[in-house]
Amino acid sequence: xxxxxxxxxxxxxxxxxxxxxxxxxxxxxxxLPSRLLALKYGADLVWGPETVDKAMIGTTKKLNPVTxxxxxxxxxxxxxxxxxxxxxxxxxxxxxxxxxxGRLVFQIxxxxxTLAVEAAKMVASDVAGIDVNAGCPKPFxxxxxxxxxxxxxxxxxxxxxxxxxxxxxxxxxxxxSVKIRLLETPEKTEALVRRLCQTGITGxxxxxxxxxxRPRERAIRDQLRMIGDICREAGVACLMNGxxxxxxxxxxxxxxxxxDGGMIATAAEANSSVFRTExxxxxxxxxEVVREYMQIALDVDNRWGNTKFLLSQLMPGKAEVYxxxxxxxxxxxxxxxxxxxxxxxxxxxxxxxxGITVLTGKALEKAKKKNKSAKxxxxxxxxx
Length: 384
Description:
The chain is an alpha/beta fold. The protein is 39% helix and 16% strand. The chain starts with 20 loop residues before the first strand and ends in an 8-residue tail after the last helix.
């Protein structure tokens, strides 16, 4: 008689991580345009960038009538003075309610069960799951007891997950998951995974590196089968992360090590079409990917600094336009350099909404001629 593997029930509004190849949570590279592009190229699910609990608490949720996105915003809190009426609110988190529906996982940075629950409730009705970051090794996360620091406080991490399962997962009918790294020894990793699988989570992702390791160091997969076995025994879906280059490799590695799916990070940052199989044509040329990315970034009024950073990742460093694009000041300049003429008018409108309008190209030449004429006439020079 065949025994049916145990499975933690997937809530009505949640999503099963099994059989999925997903986009990893990445600072800057996990913002909305990157997520939408990954989905376009075949990602099954997308994780947003780690968002700290205190940053989300107190935000205002708004439906953006221009972009159709849901924005969580707040006024900058770097001054005790009353902000001027024209001061722009900062977008803390932005999601697309239809294009990401059922496929977005919100990752939270936290070291407090109470704050984790309060922050998660802000976004729980708009996402398919809440994931706790227990793997980020960077000081901005660990210094506050968050990220990989939680690996050293397993009882605290467990209590955070239990609070989220009970107070957010249940009421909102979504899954709660966690992303971890390997500990110093297999025994410590095993003890941690067993503890976490007892909290009621539906999924666990393991980044196959220890906390001190950096991306350039090769991922360690020796413990992966053991972790997968523990998760399967508990009915928890297990994803692997670390040196996963594309969808085909993710599926192959998952089968080889007995886990349920794969998470792609760095490779997707360089070319979002890594989610296409070889059968589907594999990687697309960088110019096509950049065009698709730019169109999405314009459609959602993405912050220009973030867009420029992603362009620098998607373009080869040796490309003739690389230096010019990375030196551009706004969307219009980038569209001119990349010869995306069909996006120029939209780029102008987005620049105006974002307050980054500067004279470029033909408009700049026209202004220079006007200045010369004004000088010749003894008039006053216009701003260039």
